[in-house]
Amino acid sequence: MELTEIDYFWKRLELKCPDTASAVTATITVTQPQGYVQQLTAAEIRVGNGRAQLTILYPLIDEGRYDTNSLGAGYVHCFWVMGAYTFEVVLFDGGEKLAVETLVLEADSFFPRHEKPSPADPGLVERVMTVNARPQIIECASRRSVYLNEDNASYTIAIHKQRVSRCSVEVDVTARHGSQTLAGPWRFELTDTAQQGGFSTADWDSGEYWIRIRMLDNGVPVGPYCVRKFLRVIDPPPPPPPVLELAGHPEVLVDGYSFDVVDGVQFVPDQLRKSGPVVSQTAAHENQCLGVSSITWNDEQQQFEAVYVNQYDLRERKATASQRVGLSMLAVSKDGDHWQKPDLGLIDYDGSADNNILSAQPNSSIVDAEHQHDIEHAQFRFYDADRDGPVNLDNVFLCNGKSSFPRGCKNLQTVGIDRARLEQLEDDTLGLGRLGGTVTNRSEDGQFRLGPGEHWPFERRGDLYLVLTREPLLFLGFGLDLYHATEGLRCHVEDNGDRNRLLYYFRPGSPPYPPHGAVYDNGATLRVLGVLWTEDGLNWHRQFILGPDEFDRIGKQFYGMSFIHPSGTDGEGRPVMSKRTAQAQLAFGKRNLYLCTMTVHRGIEQVHAVELFWTRDLLHFHRFTDHRRCLLEPGQGGEYDCGQIRSIGQYSQFNDEWWLWYTGVNTRHNGYGIMARYENLAQLKEDYPNHAEAAYFSTWEGYYEDGKRTAYLTCLGKCKAFRLAHAEPEDVEGTLITRKLRVDGDTLQINAATEPGGQVRVQLLDEAGDGLLEKETIFKGDDLAFCVADLSSWKGRTLCIRFSLRRARLYAFAIVDSEVTGPRS
Question: pLDDT value at position 42?
């Protein structure tokens, strides 16, 4: 049987059929990829020449299941399981069956397809993403893919304006695979102007829910359901403790968590002042992409000194790349904004020592040496409590499914893709409970075997690595669940405060439903954030953190994250063991507030920006809403960071100023692939024809030239210390009164600035709300650490603080020990 599209609404089925002079009737049953079944009536049936043609009204607005697939390792794309339509046709002549035939129509066939060898492994195949199906005439998506502790949900809906001019639809909401309507139905007359619908989820359990759209023909629903999935997750953060302890760290004013009273005050993010790039390529010994490894102040020379190294290189320079590996170079500056490269005369390069090269020691890194040792000598077996005794959390780490360790270890047995095992996973993609089926890499002999794209936890004991679980913790792949990570881990933190925990942050992904997804984006998923953590190495927990929401632009997703921390440190505890598993490895003691940055990827525009967010317990994270803006936005035109701002988190402090390091990129996100992988335009066009569909695309020649000039450069975002957000009056005046605070230092400080005629009045209060100071302290001016009161007589006790703001910004407050110089970072 064959299916032919007459137009976006009408289809023609053609099958073998004996000729007959009688009137032929038909039963037509269609089963969608999502499992819904429709019984159709043919508008017309023609029989002749041994064939039957049936005309049916069946707009293919449901383009597939978008279920989880755990396929692949390295850079292999792990595509969604899209499923298939099944058309079953039975023809009758009178009461007798005349013909029976079935057609299976793969949903993958609806999408632009272009296959090419993987850059990581030519034996593997990549293909264009499952976005914007050809028959689809509707753009509809939930505004969030994960509603975390939210009681309302919303969606947008419109038509593809280049396909049809208008249509009518009915929309409702059900549970996963459900038929009972939980919200709706609503009816829309669609045009190319997006409309929005909303509904309450207040009484719903955690789980996956489906927004269902169905076409209307003269007011009657026809055709398949178009399904748009989202998750509702109920996981409220713990309430504030009875008494807050700041532990010597400033309380940056990002929200009202630490206050009992917030009256007429709003919390607003600040933006950083850009400075950069520190260096860019001007000499033959430099790559197009440069990374700064340290910035220090040389008191003798009265100058800042930045040491930098070569990173990515143009493909056209690969033949000489080995000559630049291991070079360390120097740049100097008097003001931290303008940098020069001194001629040091230390290292000869290409026949001359008139350069700024400090040293040339390729392959001398301790990390590389240790890494190679692991590859050569590592042994693996499953942990056995009776044989191995207690697990030492100090030596526990989670290994990235995309890294060379342990995949490259000589003594490790690896396995290929187990298709049967993948099929067992398809029945439970939600990830709020355990995975369905039996997932194990333990064979009958008990030997550990590593499958493609798997993340496993290990405890290192010399050259022996004990495998701590019998199932992988994460799979490399797409899935809006807590068992799949796109690419790899984003961040790794050790919490050694009240408890000792290892936390790993990763990116689950939701389907790229248009208008959020783009065929020229580099991943067929919209990334959110999740966390995986353990307190003993044996028992692991997981939950969602955050996802893009209604305050974000269409197509925005999360790319990377980091905790804000001083450069050159590992936080407040020991360096965590990572084996190259994450981008940031930090250890923290107890705090009331942890500040973080998130690189956000704007998939439609293909640019990156950086946003501030925060957490109180390392498990529940928060963002600004109404006042949301990024710490740093991409520059304009051809500036050094006009395409992307990435990897901001660490900072250096000089005097009273923070210098937060970031990577500025002068091209859009797709530019790196052109720079690093293509030597000619023809191959780029053949591999990525879908990139021409981007709104910013003009010509292939211009697109290629833009990509070839890609440069990744270290830049600085500057601010006064701790001034990343602040509280200010909504109008002229406002008041904040803290919850009970334990006095664990001897001095109260504030970080604040006032406008002309403005002031900050501060009073200490006892439990009855009475003032503890003879009179309020009044602050005017601009100070990072203004001493409000001596708290030595209250040390160990509790009190509250009232801040009265008038035309003022309060950035932070802290209770510190006078023995400590300034607030702790």
Answer: 95
DSSP 427-452: T--S-SSPPSS----B-TT--BEEPT
Q: What is the DSSP letter of 113?
A: -
Non-local (6+) Cβ contacts of 799 within 8 A are: 740, 741, 743, 764, 765, 766, 772
Tell me the per-residue pLDDT of 183-203, one tens digit each, with 9 for 90 and over: 999 999 999 999 999 999 999
Cross-strand bridge partners of residue 455: 474
Predicted confidence (pLDDT) per residue in 384-419, tens digit: 999 999 999 989 999 876 677 888 888 887 765 544
Helix (H, G, I), strand (E, B) or coil at 463: coil
Residue 479: the pLDDT is 87
Burial of 65 (C-beta count, 10 Å sphere; 0-12/13-18/19+) = buried
Six-digit token string for 475: 């799979």
pLDDT tens string 12-48: 999 999 999 889 999 999 999 999 999 999 999 999 9
Distance CA 735, CA 712 (A): 45
Burial class (CB in 10 A: 0-12, 13-18, 19+), 701: exposed
705 backbone dihedrals φ, ψ, rounded to 5°:
-60, -40
DSSP-derived secondary structure for 394-418:
GGEEEE-TTSSTTTT-TT-EE----
Nearest to 136 by CA among 156, 107, 114: 107
Residue pair 274/635 in contact by the 8 Å Cβ criterion: yes
- Two structure tokens written together for 103: 């057609």
Checking DSSP bridges between strand 585-588 and strand 489-496, what pairing results, if any?
A: parallel
CA 439 to chain centroid = 26
What are the extents of the domains in the chain?
Answer: 2-113, 138-233, 251-269+731-816, 273-360, 378-631
Alpha carbon of 281 to those of 257, 311, 352, 677: distances in Å?
46, 11, 18, 19
Q: From residue 697, how far is each of 604, 691, 803 by CA, in Å?
A: 12, 8, 52
**pLDDT value of residue 416:** 59
The class level of CATH for 251-269+731-816 reads mainly beta
Q: What is the Cα 485 distance to its own chain's centre?
A: 10
CATH domain 2-113 topology: Immunoglobulin-like (2.60.40)
Whether the Cβ atoms of residue 157 and residue 562 lie closer than 8 Å to each other: no
Structure tokens at 681: 């335009």
Instruction: State how far the Cα of 630 lies from the Cα of 607, in Å rounded to an integer.
Output: 13
Ranges of the chain with pLDDT below 70: 69-78, 113-129, 362-373, 401-402, 415-445, 523, 569-584, 820-825
Residues 6+ apart with CB under 8 A from 619: 237, 503, 531, 533, 543, 545
Tokens 């009475």 identify what position? 770
CA distance 161 to 60: 17
Whole-model pTM? 0.93
Pairing label, strands 529-534, 500-506? antiparallel
CATH topology of domain 138-233: Immunoglobulin-like (2.60.40)
Answer for the pair 280, 287: CB distance below 8 angstroms, yes or no.
no
User: How far is the C-alpha of 771 from the C-alpha of 297, rounded, in Å?
Assistant: 45
Domains 2-113 and 251-269+731-816 share a fold: no
The pLDDT of residue 569 is 60
- 396 vs 466: CA distance, rounded Å: 9
